[in-house]
Amino acid sequence: MSGSKMINIIARGFIVLVIFSLILFWARFRCWNKLFSNIPESSRILAIYPSGLIPGEPPPHFSNKKGYTMSELDPNEPNVHFSQVHCSLEPQLFFNNAFGILKTLSTPYDINEKIYYNNYLCFDKRKGLIVSRYKYEERSDAGEMIAKSIELFAGPHGVSQTPEPSLGRFNDLIMGDIQSRSFWIYDNKLRQFYLLDFVERTVKKGIQLEKSNTRELVAIEIINSWPYYSGSVGWISSVKWIEKYKWEYKEITVMGESNEKWYCFSQDMIKTYAPAQPYVSVLDKTGQIYIYDSNEESLKPAGYLPRPPSLFMSNEPQSQPKELLVYKALPVYAILRTPPDFNKPPERVEVKYLGMNVSSVSREGTAMTLAVFDPNGKQIYRVNTNINGIPSAQAIYTQPPGSSLLTAIEYGIESLQPPLFELASYLCDDIIKPSAGYRSLFILPNSFMGMLGRAMPQRFVEKQILALLWMCPSLILSVWLSNKIRKDAKLTGLSSMAVKAWMAGTIAFGLPAYITYRLTRYKEVMITCRNCGKLRRPDMDTCHHCGSKWDLPELVAPNWRICD
Amino acid sequence: MWTLIKREIEDNYIFFVITLLITLIFCAIFAWQIYYGNFRDVLVLVTSLWNVFPLVLIFCGLGAAQMYWDRTKKISALLATLPVGRGQIFSARVIAGFLLVVTGMFPLAAVTVVAILTKPLIPGSLVRLIFPQAMAPVFLLGFVCYCVGLQAGWTSSKIVPTLGSIVISVILISLIAIKGFGWESYLLLILLISACLARAWHTFSKVPL
């Protein structure tokens, strides 16, 4: 086979593979979308109420319940005056993850990709500085308000209006969900916490972790996806209290403290009421959560990312951040404030950490877990999504009406994928990020093979046998197609080397390889061989069946005769 | 070579005219929205780039037309009588296609740059991040569709180049929707361009004129 023909086959094969994979993607998307939509609404919401975090409240109930809003508030509900921890899994979460374009356009920053920016704040990697640009209004001499904008640069050594070298450089930076202009960051290379304040234009150093400490932090104020992306329409996790129809905070008495009134907040609200909050929640690579107390300069364990159940069940309670599609940790704080009127500027603010709720969604998006941790980091409550009492990661494929058929179709579509990619999906483990799993075209970490590959690490032999069985349809199809190619290639006069190459290619790449073969095979009309009578190619010197040339030697009469 | 490129452009001037017309309309709408409309978010600005999809189909049409007319009118056979090689004819064709894509994309890119520079909504470092991130895959997609047209046009049938290239282009457009503006899009699109050009050249160079 000539070089140019080889390039032609590879080029055509690649085009076929891409188009084939795109078509399969849309077929899979349709199936998954339908499967997710089939999950009953009651199975998508987890709630623990009372939360178990607020002093003085009774023990909690666990519920898969419909989330409520202010307008739906039922005053006769006995637990309505207590705090509630809840999270909700919506089909849009899958939809948003399946399209990279949505992610690019609607995600101001992605902690996993370590690109941080929103409208006015970003980390300039080239300069190693955090840039904050914001608008403000200033009163002119004539008394008119004039809109102005300012750009500030922050480095480890200070804040300035120009990117001066004296500011130093940040390196491997982790920033939280930045809503205000004063926030904590952590530099993984310098292993140092910093408190940046763009209003006061100061940079305050926090604790520096020791070199011997192997913890690699991955997130501050733990949430791995922006609300536009997976929040209000995709996935919510929050702590609510509705006493006297107020959502913002709850008045409580903290045990063992003075008789002064404390107010309770979840992390997403505390910044409004306690700007100088001393606690920062941080997450390390293993999924362990810590509370950094900047007053005591200490890092204390506060909980961990709970592992949601998967199709092939795993008993491990803790999950790593890279194994989850989305996760969120919401600490709850009590604030003692003087004066207690929140409309007035505080003279004194005291903050006490009460515990946290952590929710996580499995990388396939089929299961969610909600866990509550006390102030010492001990898990006190934990609930998982389920359908009819069966964990949702398993039930989604069988329980809702029509889901069994959809699962079968989904499996059929996955079996059309080239066996090589199926094998890669099985072996890829966590190489592909969970949020990219649904967007994969070739290696499918969210396919059944991918899920199997990540499961049952302790039952090695059983897992390999199961994988082989799972791949059977795909392998049978590939072997059948390669056999068809072998028969056809022999008829069209391909060399035995070329036939073997095509067969190996078809076993590896399945249907796309077969389509490529059909598109590139010899198409000219063949001629009957005068020697063997079979069809031979006109462009070859010898017949590929009997090896005779075009010019056959004349028939010479033998010297012998048959006599009676 | 320049003469060949010029001839390609002259032969297919209608594609250039339509492309320029559509681009200018988009630019006018775009500029009006930036300066007088309610454009507050730079991310919304990026979405406007997706208005270029009709252009992508025109690029595809040029590729198909070039090859279709070559095959039916025996243009290459005529040119081969002159001291011109097949490589030069093919290169001139591809360069003309590239220029068409530039004609379609450059005004939009220019308006975006001017808008970003004159409307300081975001830090300068972000402009560098967002601008190539959004424009490069759209440009590559346009060129991929042109290359798909080159392949689809090499037939004596009229239906195959028209419908075939449109269907394949629509499927390929979804590639960006799925993969977004990341490096995976760049890689896949560049590989697709290479594969399509290799295929088109193989077909063009092997077929007797």
Count of all domains of chain A: 3
Helix and strand succession of chain B?
HHHHHHHHH
The averaged pLDDT of chain B comes out at: 78
Count of individual beta strands of chain B: 0
Structural shape of chain A: elongated
- Counting helices, strands and paired strands, the structural category of chain B is mainly alpha
Rounded mean pLDDT of chain A is 79
- Considering DSSP H and I runs of 4 or more, what fraction of the residues of chain A is helical? 25-40%
Shape of chain B: globular
**Largest interface chains and counts:** A-B, 39 and 39 residues
β-strand amount of chain B = under 5%
Radius of gyration of chain B: 18 Å
Strand order of the largest sheet of chain A: 14-15-19-20-21-22
Low-confidence stretches of chain A: 107-118, 226-234
Give a brief rundown of this model.
The complex is a heterodimer of chains A (564) and B (209). Chain A has 564 residues and is of the alpha+beta class.
Describe it.
- The complex is a heterodimer of chains A (564) and B (209).
- In chain A, helix 1 runs antiparallel to helix 7.
- With 564 residues, chain A is α+β, with helices and mostly antiparallel strands.
- In chain A, 27% of the residues lie in helices and 27% in strands.
- About 4% of the residues of chain A have low confidence.
- In chain A, the strands form seven sheets. In chain A, strands 14-15-19-20-21-22 form a six-stranded antiparallel sheet. A four-stranded antiparallel sheet of chain A has the order 2-1-3-13, with no helix packed on it.
- Chain A has three domains: 143 residues, no CATH class; 218 residues, no CATH class; 106 residues, no CATH class.
- Chain B is mainly α and 209 residues long.
- Chain B has one domain.
- The two termini of chain B are 20 Å apart.
